[in-house]
Amino acid sequence: MRCTRCRGQEACLEVRRHNAAFCEDCFLAFFRDQVTRAIEHHKMFRRDEPVLVAVSGGKDSLALWDVLLDLGYDATGFYIGLGIPGYSEPSREKCEAFAARRHARLIVTDLEADYGLGIAETARRTMRTPCSACGLSKRYLFNKVAQEHGFRVIATGHNLDDEAATLFGNVLRWQTGYLGRQAPVLAEEDGFIRKVKPLYRLAEREMAAYCVLRGIDYIVDECPMSKGAKSLLFKDVLNQLEAVSPGTKQAFLFGFLEKVQPLFAQHEAVTLRPCTQCGQPTTAELCAFCRLRAEVAQPKRRRGRRGPQRAAPSPDGVTGPPAPALAES
Amino acid sequence: MRVLLRHPERREIEIAGRRRVGELLAELGLQPEAYLVIRDNRLLTRDALLEETDTIEVRPVVSGGAA
Q1: Among A residues 156-195, those touching chain B with beta carbons less than 8 Å apart
Q2: Which residue in A233, A312, A319, B65 has the most C-beta neighbors within 10 A?
Q3: Which CATH topology does A13-217+229-297 take?
Q4: pLDDT score at A269
């Protein structure tokens, strides 16, 4: 199979939704073009604006960090140790090795050591799913740590598959609040910094391919805590559709962003105020993260008849859906 | 050929005979969208021919969880 772009070299990767196949050089050019297009079209950040990049040691976030550095952006990595035995340590090592290789700055914080909230233990004590506790904690720390270090924007490695799977899950249950806030850019407001997703135009497979071609050593194995996560099921269903009808995932997500999301976003005005404990923005007296810490600090409860506690939808972005697939990438 | 699989757990299998990448994935019951096939650190497209003597990695690309 020949590259459909330069028509000279042997192709290394098909991108069927674009009816294309690329050689190594043309794929890297395509990848950078898609990221640039996302950043510029949505005015995610300026070229001279420092960007904090949430990195996990996985393919998406390291690919994001790499491509931003390559495009000349002032990108600092931010790693959160999640306290997942056998997984968090190698993840951190991948981030540190990448930072050293690229001479880039990496900020590290540790949920277990700094906040007493290792994900495995937190999930066990609060009867949340690990992905719910993880997502909640990450969203909180993204905002807090970015502010502490003077950043006004944080970039996450959410890709097309992550976003399509999240959308699919939220549509299945008509989570209108979440639908109103699913966008490539969440603007800065009332104590929340800007959050951006420069990879949303690129598929998960393209992230892995980019890392292979760029020689990025990422953690290939799946997070042991995500076994049975709904996001994996949603991705599987969408990939089955994609195999029969290439372009389905992109049409689903892009159509939503263009035609539907603005309608839900209009109904999402809420009042935010500082958490009485930590000062981070929230709709309640205590933010979801401080409530989680309080819950973990309490003596362990027995599982009630109603089963695991669910996070209530909250527009502050601190309490999230127990679902999909976002940036542990 | 030797095929390294990583999902659901890491294991190695032997497959006899030549075949194309697309045929190998179909035989293994794997979705092409969810895997990369890599030989000697090079990515392979569906039509690439795999030889009996090759060592191949079938690398999953799907990650889940929350953020």
Answers
A1: 156, 158, 161
A2: B65
A3: Rossmann fold (3.40.50)
A4: 66
